[in-house]
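Q: Hi! First time asking for a complex rather than a single chain. Here are the components, and I think there are two in total. Is that enough to go on?
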Amino acid sequence: MGPLIPNGIITGNWDFVVAILLGIAFGFILEASGFSSSRNITGVFYGYNFVVLRVFFTAVIVAMVGILYFDYFGWLDLTKIFILPTYLTPMIVGGVIMGVGFILGGFCPGTSFAAIAIGKLDALFFTIGLYLGIYLFSISFPLFANFYDSGNMGNVTFTDVTGISASWFAFAFTAIALAAFWGTAVIEKRIRKNITEYKF
Amino acid sequence: MNRNYIYLTLLMLILAIGTLMINKTKEPNQIEPKQLLFELIQPTRYVSTDQVAKMIIQNDPSLELIDVRNIKEFEAFSLPKAINVPLDSLISKNSLLNFGIQGTKVVFVSNDDIASDQAWILTKRLGYKSTYVMKGGLNLWMETIINPKQPEETESAAAFATYAFRQGAQLYFTGAKTEDSGAPKAKVEVQRKKKSGGASGGC
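A: Yes, that's all I need. Here is the structure of the assembled complex.
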């Protein structure tokens, strides 16, 4: 059956409708998980709050295992879904920059908008910086255009690169994620004893 | 610790283990049998040797001749601009990129039309559109285009018109040209289908 648009079940004109619905759901989940608070988010780097890790790992493992089942039941054709092309080195560098910005600013792009929605001033300044960054990036893009496009590995998946089958990877990742949930719960408990609890 | 967390952890673990049990013998997506049977009995899935000859002479860019014979036979004789995709390697990822290109008509060619019919059915089952079979194959090609027979005097004017065309085509394909138009032959480059990209996004 799926993906709906490539299979012609709904036309491409629904793109934006689907995007808006998904955006609403995404924002809602971010806010409901407490991601509109930068203390919650950066807590993962200081070891007192692992909600980011838990929420994102939950999303990843549910989606990962769910997609495999959807493919098995014939609801979603995995060969037709879009896979983001991999640019290895630029992605690592980008990830590091994003991580630094994450700790410094206390938000990632998505969560900053969720925080603005509930009226947080720090998020407002964060997004002003975000747009400035986008602007600076755009005008200085020619300087690092070569690096930006370097090392294109194409639309590859982990399975394509390593040969490890998707279900084994999903299983291993799920096991690691579940272990991380319980492990971080222990860490959190210990650290929170010696820390002033914030009301978020 | 909340008991629900334990249940959820176990549930997730069981689901993840379940993915290992999933049987992954992938069957290619196929069209409905009804649809296949319907298309199978359409006479329009055949093109005549005359039509193919005409398209080659006119340098029709939409024509994509796929020769499904083996390489040896292909090298011994083939139609101009034909692409060799042997029947036994038809269903490979690389070969399949030749099909389903927007605006092209794939015409399967073999010695008769049995192998090309098989190729037609295989690709049709995989859902590729605008594929055709050259009726009679290269044998009929030899009979009609390379050695056309003069029609009887009692036959229709259409038969004579066809004959006249075939005579011209014969000259074109056997190289016995009476006059050289001087126009350079257009080279047809096969455009392989690009993988469609979707929207990109992130966090």
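A: The helical segments of chain B are 3-21, 33-40, 49-57, 71-76, 93-96, 114-125, 137-146, 157-174. Let me know if you'd like any chain examined more closely.
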